[in-house]
Amino acid sequence: MDHADITRPNAALLARIAPIATSTFANAFDEAGLFHNVMEGISGVAQGVALCGPAITVKLSVGAPGSFTSANFAVGAMIDAAKRGDVIVIDGAGCRCSTWGGMASYAAKLKGIAGLVVDGAVRDFEEMVEFGFDVFSRHMVPTTGRSRLKVEAINVPVSVGGVLINPGDIMVGDGTGVIAIPHAQAEAVVQFAAKCQRDDDAAMADMKNGLSFSEAMAKYRNI
């Protein structure tokens, strides 16, 4: 399947992003005026899952059983489009049939893909855990997407969890949720987030030395 490639952030920027929690980025988004970049209804399929990397975006069409052919169910094309460290981000319009399962998780893990975010459904929970592939989705269901789903396009703008995602935007996921950092604003957002993190660290140090939480809230605006 033909598609444009993405512009990837440099490794140094990703290294600064990876240790920062999604909640801290959400605070930074308010500072940056990004009020619609926290996904709704998308969560990790297991405890301890986390991801950070540029988005390979996928747009699906959804139909009744028999609407599409097996060739349309082009999960392999998604994996082929991604490089080591990328995150596959799928707009499945919240569907309740699976676009991704255990074998796809195994193939993606072998390739070094950083994880998956699906506004739709996945399946084969135990295999995802066994293979150590980090997945965030809206639903977990047994139902196959074969003949129900069609990959319409790769690396086009998509809507996932109520957030507009462009190819190459930086995805961050942890136990709290998933956020998307627009590629063009990544440096400014990371600077805000780093300031929020410093405030958190300083507030905890002060509370350890006797400052009350109310006093810490007054002293550190970003905690």
Helix and strand topology:
Blueprint: H1 11-17, H2 22-32, E1 43-44, E2 51-62, H3 75-81, E3 87-91, H4 102-111, E4 115-122, H5 125-131, E5 135-140, E6 149-154, E7 158-160, E8 163-165, E9 170-173, E10 178-181, H6 186-208, H7 213-219
Parallel strand pairs: 2-3, 3-4, 4-5
Antiparallel strand pairs: 1-5, 2-6, 2-9, 7-8, 9-10
Helix pairs in contact: 2-6, 4-5, 6-7
| SSE string | HHEEHEHEHEEEEEEHH
Helix proportion: 25-40%
Described by strand count, sense and barrel closure, the largest sheet is: 8 strands, mixed
How many helices does DSSP assign? Answer: 7
> Would you count the extended β strands for me?
10
Give the amount of beta strand, in percent.
Answer: 15-25%
The rough form would be described as elongated
Q: Which residue ranges are poorly predicted, with pLDDT under 50 across at least 5 consecutive positions? A: none
In angstroms, what separates the terminal alpha carbons? 46 Å
Structural account:
It is a single chain. By secondary structure, this protein is of the alpha/beta class. It contains 7 helices and 10 strands. Strands 1, 2, 3, 4, 5, 6, 9 and 10 form an 8-stranded mixed beta sheet that branches. Helix 4 links the parallel strand 3 and strand 4 (115-122). Helix 4 (102-111) packs parallel to helix 5. It is elongated. The model has no long low-confidence stretch (mean pLDDT 95).
